[in-house]
Automatic annotation (TrEMBL):
Regions annotated as coiled coil: none
High-level lineage: Bacteria, Pseudomonadati, Pseudomonadota, Gammaproteobacteria, Chromatiales
Taxonomic superkingdom: Bacteria
Protein name, per record: DUF938 domain-containing protein
Pfam family, one: DUF938
Organism listed in the record: Thioalkalicoccus limnaeus
Length: 205
């Protein structure tokens, strides 16, 4: 694939710095991370450069891999291996990871896929590991902003199975799969980074 054919995500460029400020200290002791739904790979390239101690394992749906490869193959970073084909509703890697990260995925997944993602994270996350999930979310069944309300309506107009997920529902899902809620970090433009840790882990400051 030629450079001009690479997909591009403006949002990934806009939110990479505030996300890094949250996840860099969180993943300082991790050595191997799984990113779920890597999209174009722009986050993977930026974050792997900022955290060279961390093997950043990108993944995507099989039909999205060509665009992801276009970015990652060009980057040729030693801590950025070839991306995995991963459908959260299908077979997950048999490996264990010290950390898991995902951005802007829960609201474009079906409810069943979100549940499968959380279940899968609970299965692959090593003891002491952290899971960080970035995106727009509802809280206590309510929208946190008018822009999130409009965004949710637009998502549902594209596919009624998509939509903003509620923090309480995600906490309940995570609890069933051995993940303890740590905190919610406010992010720009009415987004959040939600952080869980493997049950019994030492909570980072």
């Amino acid at each position: 694939m030629s450079a001009c054919a690479k997909p591009y995500s403006a949002a990934s460029d806009e939110n990479k710095e505030p996300i890094l400020a949250v996840i860099q200290p969180l993943f300082s002791q991790a050595r191997r991370l799984l990113e779920i739904g890597s999209g174009t790979g722009q986050h993977a390239i930026y974050f792997s450069a900022a955290m060279p101690h961390l093997i950043w394992q990108a993944s995507e749906l099989p039909d999205q891999l060509p665009g992801l490869h276009a970015w990652l193959d060009e980057a040729t970073r030693p801590n950025l291996p070839s991306p995995l084909a991963l459908d959260v509703l299908g077979t997950w890697p048999g490996d264990s990871f010290d950390a898991v990260f995902s951005a802007n995925t829960a609201h474009i997944m079906t409810v069943e896929a979100v549940a499968a993602m959380v279940r899968g994270v609970g299965a692959v996350l090593a003891p002491g590991g952290y899971f960080a999930l970035y995106g727009p979310f509802n809280e206590s069944g309510r929208y946190t902003s008018d822009s999130n309300r409009r965004f949710d309506a637009w998502l549902k107009s594209q596919d009624p199975r998509m939509g903003l997920r509620d923090l309480g529902d995600l906490q309940a899902l995570a609890d069933r799969h051995g993940l303890d809620f740590v905190r919610s970090e406010p992010m720009p433009v009415n987004n959040l980074t939600l952080i869980w840790c493997r049950r019994g882990c030492r909570v980072a400051d």
